[in-house]
Specification:
Elements: H1 2-24, E1 31-32, E2 38-42, E3 54-60, E4 71-77, E5 89-92, H2 106-117, E6 123-126, H3 141-150, H4 157-177, H5 187-201, E7 206-211, H6 213-224, E8 229-235, H7 248-262, H8 268-281, E9 284-285, E10 288-289, E11 295-296, E12 299-300, H9 302-312, H10 316-319, H11 322-330, H12 337-350, H13 357-367, H14 373-384, H15 388-396, H16 399-405, E13 425-430, H17 438-447, E14 451-456, H18 469-479
Parallel strand pairs: 5-6, 5-7, 7-8, 8-13, 13-14
Antiparallel strand pairs: 1-2, 2-3, 3-4, 4-6, 9-12, 10-11
Amino acid sequence: MTRRLSWLLLPLLLLFLLWRWYAGTLAVPNLRLDNGAAYSPTPCWFGIPAGRLVECGMVTTRESGQGGRHRLPVVIVRNSRLRNDPSPVIFIQGGPGGASGLDPITISWWFADIERYDLGRDFVLYDQRGTGLAEPALRCPEVLSGIERDLQLVLDLRGENRRYLDYLRACRDRLLAGGYRLDDYSTALNSDDLADIINLVQPGPWTLFGASYGTRIALETERRYPQLVSNLVLESVYPHDKDGFLSWPMVLGRAVERVLENRGRPDLKPRLVQLMEEYDREPVRVEAVRNKGEPIEPVITGSRLYMTLFAATYSSDMAESIVPLIEELSAGESAGERLAELVSFAVELELDESFSEPVFQAISCREDLVGGYAAYRALAEEYAGDNLILRDMLLLQSPAAACSIWKSGRVSASFRERVVTEKPVLLLAGELDAVTPVEWAAEMHGYLPASRLVIVPAGGHGVSMTDSCTMVIARAFLEEPHASLPSSCKGDG
């Protein structure tokens, strides 16, 4: 009986060994491109969920014109254990300077989302040069620690900005003294890196899924490497013809106003101006809590009250509290739980340790029209209106001041030309997104012939993170890019 059972199990064992061998051939091997970019498989640095086939590796970038090389972590989440996907989806993070969340804690959220939404494709994640787990990863701890201290002090706008610029200058000086090249970061170089990842992992065409600034990298890759792009999913679009510097007065000036109008409470705008003036005269200390449970006691001035509300517009959940908070503060409830919750949220955004300030400054100062200060000033006065504190925020804390420190070169005028393609494009936009307004997506929809625009009512910045209906639509788009899709998303964030 035992011998007979062994003969019965032998074919199963052979099949298992054959399957293990075949599955092993899925893994991306050591590869090197003619331009010098290379891929090296590495053990994953995080736990892998049961039943998932995940590969990890490091891409060494080609040598740039500035002489730099970078090592970028890559995570490949296979959709099938039997074959590689001929057209994976790659997620391109925003910022500039945002990390993709490949650390052991955040990657678990990715696995949950990939399982939940099941886009039916291999899904690839990576960190851009200078960000996240890339090598080198550039950070400004001087800026973060300085801002954390200053938030707990009573400072006027001029003094607060002067201290921030001192921290930024100290960070830049330290990086330069350490031999880091601060001119080795740009959208074009990010596009080169993305193209090399595709050619190393699975020669294209792929689906490029860009978020915020990541949409600009996706569009630049479509312009420079169209053969590597099958279609695009662009969330919170940041088109080449929209300038981060000249759009800042509109972004900051309209952020809270959009929410008030959407909630049918534009009458609260003058009251907000009054509240900002009151908080400037008599600042209030608020007991807040960091995500790690650490207490912090920011002092809320008029400008910091406004920035707290501005931060809330990033999230549809947080934005729900803007109108009630203004009503509470108007009733004299100056230190309520709602204010503490929004302040905690704003502080966490401001002190995000995963964000690369050097990469943000290097790319923004290189690619924005920071020389057009006269136009900027006119826009600042237009969007601030009778809100004098907001006007001073825009003028005294202009991004041009940071760029006067963070000199990183300029791009040619041709960089700002629109990228136009006839490939299928899915545009996802939040109705209340202040950072990349829905109008930008609507305008892009008008000049991309095969695009579909999906708007999330009351959605903020980064709707795929808060509204799962967007991913249901994205799955339908990937299955049949030319099929009809809804023009709006019910919103469930």
